[in-house]
């Protein structure tokens, strides 16, 4: 098991009446889920996905296939919420984060993503976005018709192109990332990244050494910047070799 310290925070924001985000910070699993769908469907979807991932908590010899199977189980469970009574039609959720697994005998991170929540890694002073959003605006950025900066303000920035709960199977992006000494990970919903630039996020992550203080301060900053959406943050520090 990778030795970590971590913090977590979430806030409904200033506009929404309900927090449809959920999170799990339970080693070796660190994920956020951003639910969507009316009539409490979004909150039910994100909490169902997180509950399914909680089955992996406190396991110290997971392999990537077990994580993939848990994501598939979460997808099936969220999809079941939408069935025929119609009250939760269209319930869906993002599911994004990292899980410590064993791959070829070595402990490593498995970064997973479905949707437009994000994983970032702070190594040294540089913050890198590790996941790629499954969103309409990301496709426009990839096509060269929209800048990453303007994507934050695009009227269709909330349209996701992949989510748990939709028809058919769901294919999560899965990436192995060997742990580095003294690295810091950030898992967050789009309520953070639509309010703060990557530079603003990086500044907080550099200054606040305690992971709980960093998580609290990021969420506070996003709410102060507008709080247009629910905001959820998990910060994970890998113990240094110093
Ligand atoms: Mn959101």
Element layout with pairings:
Blueprint: E1 4-11, E2 21-26, E3 29-36, H1 41-54, H2 64-81, E4 92-93, E5 95-103, E6 106-114, E7 118-123, E8 126-129, H3 136-142, H4 148-151, E9 173-177, E10 184-188, H5 190-193, H6 198-207, H7 211-224, E11 231-238
Antiparallel strand pairs: 1-11, 2-3, 3-4, 3-5, 5-6, 6-9, 7-8, 7-10, 10-11
Bound molecules: manganese (II) ion.
Commentary on this structure:
- With 242 residues, the chain is an alpha+beta fold.
- It is 29% helix and 29% strand.
- The strands form two sheets. Strands 2, 3, 4, 5, 6 and 9 form a six-stranded antiparallel sheet that branches. A five-stranded antiparallel sheet has the order 1-11-10-7-8.
- Helix 6 runs antiparallel to helix 7.
- The longest helix is centred in the N-terminal third of the chain and has 18 residues, at 64-81.
- It starts with a strand and ends with a strand.
- Manganese (II) ion (MN) is lined by residues 34, 189-191, 229-230.
Jot down its keywords.
6-stranded antiparallel sheet, 29% helix, 242 residues, alpha+beta, binds manganese (II) ion
């Amino acid at each position: 098991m990778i030795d970590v310290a971590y913090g977590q925070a979430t806030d409904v924001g200033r506009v929404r009446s309900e927090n449809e985000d959920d999170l799990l910070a339970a080693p070796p699993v660190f994920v956020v889920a951003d639910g969507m769908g009316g009539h409490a469907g979004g909150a039910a979807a994100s909490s169902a996905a997180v509950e399914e991932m909680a089955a992996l908590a406190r396991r110290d010899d997971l392999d990537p296939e077990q994580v993939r199977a848990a994501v598939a189980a979460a997808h099936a469970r969220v999809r079941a919420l939408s069935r025929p009574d119609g009250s939760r039609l269209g319930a869906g959720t993002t599911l994004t984060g990292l899980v410590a697994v064993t791959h070829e005998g070595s402990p490593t991170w498995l970064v997973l993503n479905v949707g437009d929540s994000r994983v970032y890694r702070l190594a040294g002073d540089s913050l890198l976005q590790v996941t790629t959003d499954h969103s309409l605006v990301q496709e426009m950025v990839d096509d060269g018709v929209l800048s990453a900066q303007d994507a934050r303000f695009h009227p269709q920035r909330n349209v996701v192109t992949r989510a748990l709960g939709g028809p058919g199977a769901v294919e999560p992006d899965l990436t192995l990332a060997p742990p580095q000494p003294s690295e810091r990970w950030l898992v967050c919903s789009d309520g953070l990244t639509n309010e703060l630039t990557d530079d603003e996020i990086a500044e907080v992550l550099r200054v606040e050494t305690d992971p709980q203080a960093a998580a609290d301060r990021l969420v506070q900053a996003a709410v102060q910047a507008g709080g247009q959406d629910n905001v959820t943050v998990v910060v994970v520090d890998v113990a240094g070799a110093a």
